[in-house]
Amino acid sequence: MNDSDEKFALEYYTADDAAPQGPPFKYRSHYLDDAVAEAWRLRDAGDRPLRVTRGDAVTLDEGALESTLARVSEVSTGEPEQPLREIAARVLGENVKAHGA
After folding, report:
1. 90, exposed or middle or buried, with CB in 10 Å at 0-12, 13-18, 19+?
2. Per-residue pLDDT averaged across 30-36, rounded?
């Protein structure tokens, strides 16, 4: 297993790629909360986050990522002073509890 297989990869298109022809861009991180926080920042800037993968497995598909980002937005509105990555970690923890994993 190489280093990129161990990392989470956030796949996204930039706002400039209105009709994407090529593969999506990738942001890689060892931490899922970091990838989710970056997805939120990208979406806030007008880009389109697609999914988070790890190796060949999809960790958050587009629907799950979108609902996670919506919840991050809700929490960050109520707690604007809290770092975005901490909010992402809390929301991911809520998701785990809600799905009984």
Report:
1. middle
2. 97
Q: Do the Cβ atoms of 24 and 51 come closer than 8 Å?
A: no
Answer whether 45's CB lies under 8 Å from 12's CB.
no
Of 93, 9, 1, the C-alpha closest to 57 is: 9
Q: Which residue has the tokens 């979406």?
A: 43
Q: What is the pLDDT of residues 54-97, one digit of tens each?
A: 999 999 999 999 999 999 999 999 888 899 999 999 999 998 77
pTM to 2 decimal places = 0.87
CB distance 25 to 12 below 8 Å: yes
Which string of DSSP letters, residue by residue, matches 73-97?
HHHHHH-TTS-HHHHHHHHHHHHHH
